[in-house]
Prior knowledge:
A: alpha+beta, CATH 2.40.50.100, six-stranded antiparallel sheet, three-stranded antiparallel sheet, B: alpha+beta, Alpha-Beta Plaits, Elongation Factor Tu (Ef-tu), domain 3, 3 domains, about 20% helix, about 35% strand, globular
Amino acid sequence: MNVPDELKYATSHEWIRQEEGQARVGITDHAQAELTDVVYVELPKVGDRVEAGQPVAVVESVKAASDIYAPVSGTILEVNTVLESEPALVNTDAFGEGWLFTLSVEDASELDHLKSAEEYREQIG
Amino acid sequence: MSTPGNDISAPALKKTPLYGEHVKAGARMVDFGGWLMPVQYSGIMEEHHAVRNQLGVFDISHMGEVIVSGPNAQVWLDSLLTNNVSRLQPGHSHYTFLLNERGGIIDDLLVYQYAAGEYLLVINASKIGEDFAWMQAHLTEGVTLENKSAEYAGLAVQGPGAARLFDRFFDGRYSRPARNEIIEVEEKGIPLLISRTGYTGEDGFELFFDATRAASVWNAILEAGADLGIKPCGLGARDTLRLEMCYPLNGSDLSPERTPLEAGLGFFVDLDKPDFIGRKALVAQRAGGIADRLVPFRMLGKTPPPRAHYAIYKNGEAIAETTSGSLSPTLGVGIGMAYLPAQWARINEEIEIDIRGRRFPAVIDRKPLHRKS
């Protein structure tokens, strides 16, 4: 399984990439493989304030709907609207074109509670 | 993210004789009614399309097999089942129901008269214990009842390539059974019962045979079908395929609280038979009018996929809930089924499905939702 070194990870299988003034969030390669064919993605609203650990999006496969949690607290800046017509990008490019949303990070110390690539690799075995 | 339905740590899950083959093939195994079963191998969409366009093979060894024989076998079956067994020709099968006294569905099943006066009942995996106990409790003289579920493996080979696979597999030594027909053949010393039946809406065969030979038959089928594009298929694709055809799933669309008349399956009920368990209730229901009917619907436009137990609204009021739902891989829209009050259970009637607090439009359609072009 691909687990890029430069990202941080939530136990609930979201990845977070720190960018200039914001953070980008998606689900991991492991998560997309577990979910299988993604057929629908429900994204948060731009401007919504979210708490770390709060369900903010839903990724649906043929079999099940799965909640996606905010890895840190902040305000949603942008959502990946391409997923509305091409939800399978979550499967084919989980760490790239399949990103879900960006948010402003309120408290950078929350990032320290997330896992490193090495810790996440250990979690998924 | 959490992944429901993947908890395989529950105690005492039963395994089919093909468990090892599934794991080898990289299947994702899930708990299905107490059985550890493959939900998918390569992916539900891919497996679904393989069955619609080429060929797929399913392990159906979890399903139950009950043999009924003896001089009173037919008469006894006719006292328990809704369809007319006395009209079933040797070598043929039909779909039927086992009902409780209230006319509610205990199980839906296929009855095969595989030899003159000898019947094979293929029943749902989760109902084996309950069905068999019910049959034993109602057993009469001159009937032999045997639960052979553990001794039989079962495969379903489904898809437009099924006929070619059959001819190739047997090297033309046997002629293909006709629709709903069952034949007894032998391949490499393994006796096989083969019927032209299935649960996908495609042409295909179901094979029943000695469970100890499961792996060798499974692998021989995959080998013979390799250049026909055969794929091992899991329960995920089995569910989307059957839902597109509006075939009911017991436990979801059928239950002891619903009758075959409400389910729109009166074709498989012969109320002209002198008696069978549940008949009186059905006659009364028919006379009094059927309040709810199971109907298929499809979502209008791009929506999240509907799933079982979503609320259904009409004119702002909750009127029912879905019994099944999924994205249809063939149609590319959400589809499902529900029991609706008769006044709304009409083709082209528009309804709304509540998905996580938002309502999305859907329309009642005719059966099946998928029709061959």
